[in-house]
């Protein structure tokens, strides 16, 4: 059960690390994940990590698979998933598996989106979550969505569940997603944001403009790694 911790000041919570390009962003993100894993295992014996969908984390995961990341003591959960058949290229799990060698795949805790009863499946996944994540990786779309917390969907207002379903389709599919209470309660959030198409949304994120879902994440320990210039475009 997520504990009711005080809400942090959103604008004072984010540290932004600019890098030269997407490859350097992936390398820096992987470095931060590995450091966080080592600390979590030293302090609590296990690293509970959640990774978002989309293509942005693929290179980060490839780097981690070749590092000294302690995979045998890591549980890798999904932040969100598309409701699509097993093996579909639309599934985040498909790309997650392709990004990791077999020896690392035992750490994966997939969202059960193939179940006939998705509401019950979401509850089951919620029960499997750790009390508190050590690290949650988030991306951001050009429209400012993060996880599958998408603009205009009632899932944005879910506070009584840690896992929820979007009410409608987003880019062709419904989604299962972790909700804001889980993101806000994590020990650390890592935003990995690359690509010029996200410029407008990124400016809103760093200014704390809650008209976009990503800016509604309220966590006292947020690091954003990005290849975008920090100076807003006029």
Summarize the structure.
This protein has about 230 residues and is of the alpha/beta class. It has a single domain (about 15-225), classed as 3-Layer(aba) Sandwich (Rossmann fold). About 30% of the residues lie in helices and about 20% in strands.
The structure class reads alpha/beta
Query: Assembly state here?
Result: single chain
CATH topology-level name: Rossmann fold
- Per CATH, the architecture is 3-Layer(aba) Sandwich
- By DSSP, the count of extended strands is 10
The residue fraction in helices comes out at 25-40%
Number of helices: 7
Q: At the first level of CATH, what is the class?
A: Alpha Beta
Domain count: the total is: 1
Strand content: 15-25%
CA-CA gap between termini = 44 Å
Listing every helix as H and every strand as E from the N terminus to the C terminus, the arrangement reads EHEHEEHHEHEEEHEHE
Average of the residue pLDDT scores: 91
Strand count, sense and closure of the main sheet? Answer: 7 strands, parallel
Strand order of the largest sheet: 1-10-9-6-2-3-5
**Uncertain runs:** 1-9
What general form does the structure show? globular
Any idea what the radius of gyration is?
A: 16 Å
Descriptive notes:
The protein has a 7-stranded parallel β-sheet with strand order 1-10-9-6-2-3-5, with helices on one face. It has helices at residues 22-44, 57-65, 92-99, 102-105, 118-128, 180-185, 199-207; strands at 14-18, 47-51, 74-78, 80-82, 108-109, 135-138, 163-165, 175-178, 189-193, 222-226. The radius of gyration is 16 Å and the shape is globular. 30% of the residues lie in helices and 18% in strands. With 234 residues, the chain is α/β, with parallel strands linked by helices. The chain has a single domain (13-226), classed as Rossmann fold. The protein is built from 7 helices and 10 strands.
